[in-house]
Structures are given as structure tokens and as C-alpha cells.
């Protein structure tokens, strides 16, 4: 059994004014705050930032088909150089919300199709799936980001050309010191 939806929740929409007649349609534009946890480890939509929804709710035989776009601002860090990333994201969504006691109850598993609770549509799971699946697993500040120097941790594009660190094998360190002391004599 599902927990009852809160009609005051920003991502819960009432379909009561949409006739249950196939072909009936209404458009909905809204700006709502982003829910918590809308992202991956390195990039995501910060909680409370604006999500712009441009949706179309269509009455179909089995329920309400919701389709449209979600626009948000992403914040994160580059997976190579750890610089901050900020960019827009626009994703398309489309989901059927089946009426209670419709034939989809007999033809689908409970978690296969989203369901209306009374006249309420909970858009958060659909929105979360669309946004998170659109995010890059390894975000980059730019496609040719060279990353960080593995020895000093400074971004490669901030270092002079030819930057390098001399690495001495610890097994030869004593010999290096002896050679250096001979050069100074």
C-alpha cells in the first residue's frame, strides 16, 4: 500500500480538472523547488533550487499521460581537476499514471506503472529518474580538461610547459645523495 500523497507537496499535481475522457488535455507550467538528493556524487541539482516544469497532462483510456520538459541548474565538480561546474540541464519526461482499478492492474506488476492516488499525481519519482539518468557519471569542466599533476595536485593548465617532478627510486636514494655530495666537492 502506498503512503497517502500530500496535495501541498510541490511535485504532487491534482488531475481533478482534467476530464476522464480520452483526448482531454491541459498544459501546466510551474517552478518548484528541487527535492533533496537529485544527483550523483560529483554533480546534481542542489536542493531547493528552481526546477522549471513545462508539462502536458493528457487523459487516455488507462489514466493520465504526463509528458514535457524539466529544466534545472546543475552544480558539481570536474572529475579530473575538481573545479566547480555549473551548467543548465533540460530533460524530457513521459510517464503514464494509471487510474485506480484500471485494466493496467490486471496486465502489469504493481511497480511497472505509476498510479494515480485518487486524482493526485506524484511526479517526483519520474522526475528523479529522468534527471539522474541524464547526468554524466564522470562530469568534466570541459572535454579537453587535462586534470591534475599527480605529484603536486595543481591543475595541469595552470603549470608551466615542461612541468615535471624528478622521481628517485627509494632504493637508489642513498646513491643519489652520494653523487650529489661528490658534485659539491
Which short descriptors sum up this protein?
7-stranded mixed beta sheet, about 180 residues
Written overview of the protein:
- The protein has 185 residues and is an alpha+beta fold.
- The protein has 2 domains: 12-134, no CATH class; 146-185, no CATH class.
- 15% of the residues lie in helices and 34% in strands.
- The chain contains 3 helices and 9 strands.
- Strands 2, 3, 4, 5, 6, 7 and 8 form a 7-stranded mixed sheet that branches. Strands 1-9 form a two-stranded antiparallel sheet.
- Strand 5 and strand 6 (63-77) form a beta hairpin.
- The radius of gyration is 27 Å and the shape is elongated.
- The mean pLDDT is 88.
For the terminal residues, how far apart are their CA atoms? 85 Å
Structural class: alpha+beta
Name the helicity range: 10-25%
Number of individual domains: 2
Rg (C-alpha, Å) = 27 Å
Shape: elongated
Mean pLDDT: 88
- Taking pLDDT < 50 over at least 5 consecutive residues as the criterion, the unreliable ranges are none
How many beta-strand segments?
A: 9
| Count of helical regions | 3
Instruction: List the secondary-structure elements in sequence, H or E.
Output: EEEEEEEHEEHH
Largest sheet: 7 strands, mixed
Q: How large is the share of residues in beta strands?
A: 25-35%
